[in-house]
Amino acid sequence: MYEARLVDSIVRKVLCELKKNFELVLSKNLVGIDRHVKEVMEVVDSKKSHATLFLGIHGMGGIGKTTLAKAIYNKLSNQFEHRSFIADIRESWKRNGGHYLQNKLIYDILKRENEVRDENEGTNFISSKFEGKKVLLLLDDVDDVVQLKHLASERDWFSSGSMIIITTRNKRILQEFGVDYAYDHKEMDKDQSLILFSKHAFRRDSPPREFDYLAHEVVSITKGLPLSLEVLGSLLCGQKLPFWGDCQYLENTDFLSAFKNLEVLILNSCSRPQQVDSSIGGMKALLRLELRLRDSLTKLPEEIGELKALEQLLLENTPKLSALPESIGSLENLEILNIARSGIEELPDNIGSGIEELPDGIGRLRNLRELRAGGCQKLGGKLSESIGSLQNLEEQVDSSIGDMKDLVRLELRRCCSLTKLLEEIEELPDGIGRLKKLRELDAFDCKNLKGEMPESMGSLENLEILNISRSGIRKLPNDIGRPRRLRHLDASWCRELGGELPESMGSLENLEILDISDAGIKKFPNDIGRLRQLRELRASHCKNLKVEMPESIGSLENLEILDISSSGIRKLPKSIGRPRKLRVLDAAVAKTPEGKMPPNAWGLWRI
Fold first, then answer.
1. Whole-angstrom Cα distance, residue 289 to residue 291?
2. Exposure of 333 in the CB half-sphere (CA atoms within 13 A)
3. What InterPro entries does the record point to (predicted)?
4. Angle between helical axes of 190-201 and 226-236 (0-180°, round to 10)
């Protein structure tokens, strides 16, 4: 027994000494990665078991997924005798085929070369020959679940204690494959971004004083993407101050075809003319294209659809850009499309925005997470049916209703043309109830949004915030009490909203704020006292509220603010003294036309 422990100890020491020989190479200019490594390792430690552990890391291109995965791989590598790092699977699979990567994996683990000739043969070989091997496997940049199924499909392919690390841009791949834990790699904060940029641009942790302003400008532009910070920092390294200023002025873009490996392209234009021509189609590696061309950009070439790797297309503040090319539907990896404050009037049916129509191909943008179209004054028309195909959309601004299963936030704020947007109807469609993940619905100031809210609203089980303030809504759904997670309901200034609040409202057990100020409501529900989490109840200027408040209001144990100023209420219930947390009771009555206070006027009480 002693000899066995001694041998094990010696092996571990030797492995530690040899660790540097098989560690993956990492940049010396890493910033902010320790926090991410710590968060992931805490999960790894908590999930340690005898089974194979599948760990996923997802996020947009350039965010640092591979770097993080390598750091974790290095941290764990001395615990494994068998290790393999399969890099750039997305491109290598297309270029060389799956069997090429399977052969690499087989060589790393068994040191046997060219064992298989096709993917099916390779899958059978790996599943049968690795069974007794405890492996550490890093599968980098996966873009199809089929790749995982051919490389590491089942836990029992490997010995207990094995660990498979997967990086991907597409969160859905991890969900479909069924990893044990998926880590969402977020952008860097501004302080860390400045340090990383400075390391590459100035070989120090902060910019010299004369470059301070421009350095902060670059950091703001890059939005916390490490790859962008490194590329721009290296590009500007050693350049004099005038060069930094001149970078934003390019007479034209016919030089673009020369930059075949460029991954980030940002074009500014303040006064000089600029065009984007067909040569942009040659930039196959481009991940992010930002055109801040203001009045100069009038058209995008069809060749933009050839940018297959593109993840972000940012066209904000381009008022003369009136249409997007149909080829935009070919951008299968596009995650963010920003056309806010553009002049877009028409989009392919595959998109959707503050324009008159969307292009037919928008539904092909399967990985789209954000569609920003705020401030598109010419937005009208109708949404394409294909908008329902955007399964990954997380946030869409100013123009979206559809069967988007992952939609988290729907903002229709100030959409005065909403009736056109919804095919000339004056109410929200029943289909809104299918947005099961929706947490926030903002229809503030949508004056043309009229009629009753659909009963299907009751199916929004994850809804937390509902804002219909200043809209033309006339009635809340009878089942408004079903979204039990609702925390904030703002129906202020809804003067068409009359009658009584639905009795089902008493079921909103998590409601914290209810604002019906200046609405046409005539009566509170009798069971309002069941809203035990309610902190604020605002009903000022509700002239039609002329009935005594219900006695059940005394059960609002967490109520802090009650505002019924300038309402029709003239009598409070006897139970009003029971809410012990009440701090503000505003029952002031508005002045008469003669400027005098009525003799029975109450005032603002701070308790």
1. 7
2. 23
3. Disease_R_plants, Leu-rich_rpt_typical-subtyp, LRR_dom_sf, LRR_R13L4/SHOC2-like, NB-ARC, P-loop_NTPase
4. 30
- For the stretch 91-142, pLDDT in tens is 899 888 999 999 999 999 999 998 999 999 999 999 999 988 999 999 999 9
Contact assessment for residue 336 and residue 370, using Cβ atoms and an 8 Å cutoff: yes
**pLDDT tens, position by position, 356-376:** 444 555 556 666 666 665 555
Task: Answer for the pair 352, 363: CB distance below 8 angstroms, yes or no.
Answer: no
Q: Is the confidence at residue 257, as pLDDT, over 80?
A: no
Residue-wise DSSP of 561-573: EEE-TTSS-----
Q: Among 538, 536, 544, 539, which Cα is nearest to 520's?
A: 544
Which amino acid belongs to residue 208?
A: P
Q: What is the rounded distance in angstroms from the CA atom of residue 73 to the CA atom of residue 8?
A: 22
Domain assignments of the chain as residue spans, ordered by start? 15-184
Three-class SS string for 179-190?
A: CCEEEECCCCCH
Region 15-184: CATH code: 3.40.50.300
Average of per-residue pLDDT across 409-432: 47
- Contact at 8 Å (CB) between 348 and 313? no
Residue 306: how many other CB atoms lie within 10 Å:
18
Mean pLDDT of 529-547: 89
Please state the three-class secondary structure of 242-255 as a single string.
Answer: HHHHHCCCCCCCCC
* Cβ contact 137:169 at 8 Å: no
Task: Provide the pLDDT for residue 285.
Answer: 77
